DNA sequence: TGTATTTAGTTTGTCGACAAGATTTTAATA
DNA sequence: TATTAAAATCTTGTCGACAAACTAAATACA
């Protein structure tokens, strides 16, 4: 799909949203690399609209921490703060835990249905060996759980952390095991669904912590390996 | 200070920030009531600038959850979601705990100095019986602690929760005890400072939880009393 | 009198333009 | 040649204007 196809007959009020969604997607999928400058005029031409909706989208993305607005200078895609990644992991683990706990308490039948639907799509991506899809759909699965927990404050922070995690995972996570079934993540997700459905708060907390720790450890392992390689070279 | 005094000779690039700060302050101090519509043109005239920086400020405030942008309709000051306040209290309590714990771990001498400075100003407001000041300066004190904890994700959520709390407190918190010294909040803050300085994580966690629970209980008491009064009428 | 429809009046979303500030290029000097 | 100064170019921040969408007021109709 070329960008010029989108230019005509877009409804009023959707311009800024379209730019926001487009840029967000490109940032999270590393089409736009961390540190890369974003030129408003260039974007305006590419998406064939004026700078006003572009600007609004950039301001919103800055609120999400995805871009950094340098006053009177160019806007850049936010850098990933590698020296302080442990703070990211700490917050991510805590949000995994509290959202899953709250899901056990506050979910209803509709929530379970939504969660199971996300899990099914996630499993498809795993079977297909679609790494990028896995990363995004794993996010959607946990967001569905957080939504069942009903706490908008946790949901917002967790969404943001999972988004940031998408960038990190795409940099550091390569399929480090054979595409064998049953896949460990699928099994873990199933266990979490069962604990949520059983309203077993303590098991939810334990499973969420284990799940989070495993993901964190995997990223750290890859990062450590990557670091060693850099040193050897 | 009248608004017209601010119109001339403001530096380029500070317009949107000025509007943001002004509106934020007015919203948190209930000068602009929840649900009140915000007219862009009126604001533009009042702050004597064009609608563009006004709009940017509103988009940022919407990102903070302080205003709600209704597409093609007026922007309104966000309502306080009273039916779901328990989720607010839950998140607030958790953030009190984790930020204070992290402060115990990661603070340095400069952080302690900043925290003590905020506590001193807070104590002044307590002695002066300045309720509005107390609410804001109590926020600043805990933000200083969160900053010492170094986790930007917790800091952002906590700041947002404390801001939202400012609105709730201004609606529901009236000085329910005589201005006697030593004031319990001052004492509790001192105990928290001591535990942070001693790097005693467990005590920090306990004190933060007690502190949070006390504030939550106090608000809930006032709300319950308020509710009874409404029923009696 | 109450409801539906048209009309008039606001308010927002987007646009093109311009000037302040920053960046790059060119010229000047040691 | 290297360093500094000036000029030219580019990018952002702000502005005023206009049209789409919404709101209300006025009118028509049952």
Largest interface summary: A-B, 27 and 27 residues
- Give the helix proportion of chain A (percent range): 55-70%
Tally of domains of chain A:
2
The helix/strand series of chain A, from N terminus to C terminus, equals HEHHEEHHHHHH
- What structural category characterises the helix and strand content of chain A? mainly alpha
Mean pLDDT of chain A: 88
Q: Which second-level CATH architecture of the largest domain in chain A applies?
A: Up-down Bundle
Q: What spatial form of chain A do the alpha-carbon principal axes imply? A: globular
CATH topology of the largest domain in chain A: Four Helix Bundle (Hemerythrin (Met), subunit A)
CATH class of the largest domain in chain A equals Mainly Alpha
According to CATH, the homologous superfamily of the largest domain in chain A is: GntR ligand-binding domain-like
Give the oligomer, counting copies of the same chain as homo and different chains as hetero: homodimer
What does this structure look like?
Two copies of one chain form a homodimer. Chain A is mainly alpha-helical. Chain A folds into two domains: 3-77, Orthogonal Bundle (Arc Repressor Mutant, subunit A); 82-232, Four Helix Bundle (Hemerythrin (Met), subunit A). Helix content of chain A is 70%, strand content 3%. Chain A has helices at residues 15-28, 40-46, 51-63, 85-106, 109-128, 131-149, 152-172, 184-197, 201-232; strands at residues 37-38, 67-69, 75-77. Chain A has a three-stranded antiparallel sheet. In chain A, helix 1 (15-28) packs across helix 3 and helix 8 packs antiparallel against helix 9 (201-232). The radius of gyration of chain A is 19 Å and the shape is globular. Residues 1-8 of chain A have low confidence and may be disordered. Chains A and B meet through helix 3, helix 4 and helix 7 of A and helix 3, helix 4 and helix 7 of B. The structure holds a DNA duplex (30 and 30 nucleotides).
């Amino acid at each position: 799909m070329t960008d010029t196809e989108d230019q005509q007959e877009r409804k009023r009020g959707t311009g800024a949203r379209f730019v926001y969604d487009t840029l967000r997607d490109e940032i999270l999928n590393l089409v736009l690399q961390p540190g890369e400058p974003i030129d408003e005029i260039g974007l305006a031409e590419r998406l064939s609209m004026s700078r006003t909706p572009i600007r609004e989208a950039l301001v919103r993305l800055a609120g999400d921490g995805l871009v950094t607005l340098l006053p009177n200078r160019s806007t850049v895609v936010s850098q990933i703060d590698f020296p302080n990644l442990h703070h990211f992991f700490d917050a991510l683990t805590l949000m995994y835990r509290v959202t899953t706990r709250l899901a056990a308490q506050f979910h209803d039948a509709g929530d379970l249905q939504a969660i199971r639907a996300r899990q099914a799509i996630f499993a498809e991506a795993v079977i297909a060996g679609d790494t990028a899809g896995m990363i995004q759909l794993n996010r959607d699965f946990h967001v569905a759980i957080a939504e069942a927990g009903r706490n908008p404050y946790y949901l917002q922070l967790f969404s943001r952390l999972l988004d940031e995690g998408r960038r990190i995972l795409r940099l550091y996570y390569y399929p480090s095991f054979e595409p064998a079934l049953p896949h460990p993540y699928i099994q873990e997700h199933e266990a979490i669904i069962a604990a949520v459905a059983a309203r077993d708060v303590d098991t939810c907390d334990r499973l969420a912590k284990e799940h989070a720790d495993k993901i964190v450890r995997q990223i750290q392992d890859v990062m450590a390996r990557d670091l060693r390689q850099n040193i050897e070279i």
